[in-house]
# Entry
Amino acid sequence: ALPFEHDYPFCWRCDTPLLYYARDTWFIAMTKVRENLLKNNETVNWMPENIKNGRFGNFLDNVIDWGLSRERYWGTPLPIWECECGHKEAVGSIQQLKEMSDNCPDDIELHKPYIDAVELNCPKCGGKMHRVSEVIDCWFDSGSMPFAQWHYPFENKELFEQNYPADFISEAIDQTRGWFYTLMAISTLIFDKSPYKNVIVLGHVQDKDGRKMSKHLGNVVDPWSVLNKQGADAARWYFYVNSAPWLPNRFSDEAVSEYQSKFMGTLWNTYAFYVLYAEIDSFDPTKYTLDKATLAPMDKWVLSKLNSLVKFVDENLEQYKITEAARKMADFVEELSNWYVRRSRERFWGKDMPQDKINAYMTLYTVLVTLTKLAAPFVPFMAESIYRNLVCSVDKNAPESVHLCDFPVCDESMIDAKLEANMEIVLNVVVAGRAARETAKIKNRQPIGNMYIKADGKLDEEYNDIILDELNVKELEFVDDAAKFTSYTFKPQLRTLGKKYGKLVPAIGEYLKNNDGNSLMNELNEHGLISFKLDGVNVELGREDVLISTAQTEGYSTETYRNTTVVLSTNLSEELIEEGFARELTSKLQTMRKEAGFEVLDRINVYYEGNEKIAEIFTKNGDTIATNVLADSITEGKAGYSKEWNINGEKVTLSVEKK
# Structure
């Protein structure tokens, strides 16, 4: 006989070959209900959608009869009894078992070996029937879970009907042949309907290199290590935001820590900021209300963004779009911390409790409490901690847990789409402006004289003031075209022009070299071609025919972000340079306050020595610096905590002393 090669699996425990043997088996005739399975599958909302008619639908379309029995000891005994006369009986309840048996104990244990001792009286010949030796496929147990949990149909009929079919289930992709199928199979056989309405199919968790985690490979991440180091919330959050649930997830400690820092760390720091100043001022949010009429533009903006976020998260969770909701929350927290709080923090510094300070407190409190409720399903432990301190500590009538609160509802009256759009332009300008500063290597504390902005629309004066303050610029102007601040150089693209114009290529190069690059760019943008005549030949150059180099116009720095172009003037006057020194001195003194361990509201004396230029700057700008660092005096000398600094090339010794 000719030899044949066969592929055999290997045992996952000992790596030895597994051989298949044909055995007599009990089957469920699933092929008879193929069309019912396909019909019921159409009622399910699968995520991702391609599973419905793809992996799962194809599996149902090619369904085979279910080999139900297993020749094992452990498992649910197959409830079929046989008689020597050939009659078979499938027993459906303990009551039926006792009615058909003379030796069934009242407290019968339904597993082997006890169940095998129970004999039934054969209704055909009166002989004794014995249970078959097999047990049931454990996947039948998993598919029976909706009934087994309620002991249906023997008990809890009403409870079962209230909870079936399930609104939502979730498991990994391999369960299209496992649990997803067995649930559908049994439900179709019994009720001819799907056992679930919505399914999220999870991708597998991989190691950081995209490999399957395996003890054999030694690349398994110990979950307890992650829980003890980063925490359960951090692990949960990573899975929410890293990728859509149905895609593979590359998992590592480093990745969890990164996402933990970006969202949870930022949210916690924002919460800590509020608590710090609320404790200093003994602020009680239950004594005030959010006075919408007197809110600052930044307050109105963040409350509008908050309610837009609530609406977005609610709508996306309704559609089981968890990743989209989580990422939107992360974006909001980033803007809350690095835009709203940073732009508003000086409002928390003042003495007493003027209305603007109350508005700042109440706005941030409202945002934090709402955000905590919104984040509760995502990061339950952190949300609980923040909620109990922010709410339960001041309101004894509040629900004792964030998880007992109602989920936030969007207040449409707080949403101002125009305000959000305008602030979006502001943020885009700020990002581009910071990039332009970095390109020009000009520090943020160095004031700049002028900036030019090309954006989708102009802004009201109040937004311009925010931009000027944020980017530390004196004046701004919106322009229709920022091209004049960039110079262009054109060269021929030999690869395409050689075929088109041959010997004319050198002359084309000279033409491009001798003509104004900005004029050529305008022509190219307007007409899509650069057209001219050479030696009586009409030459037309498209973008593919030229190599374009860009350069900053001298004295300017240009950057673009999301269709917003910002141009900064890099020419600094003596007055601007001096003001930059003053801001640097303020920053260094603030740093020294922290290093010396002073409290936020401690008054201090400032001293300096060793540099005449710095002395002159203190003389001219002392009042402003003193106000910013809470100094009662700035004098030449040395006392208290001292430190040497090099500020823009000027060496000086600064000292701070608590009053």
About this structure: The chain has 22 helices and 25 strands. The domain at 253-415 is CATH 1.10.730.10 (Isoleucyl-tRNA Synthetase; Domain 1). The CA atoms of residues 427 and 467 lie 8 Å apart.
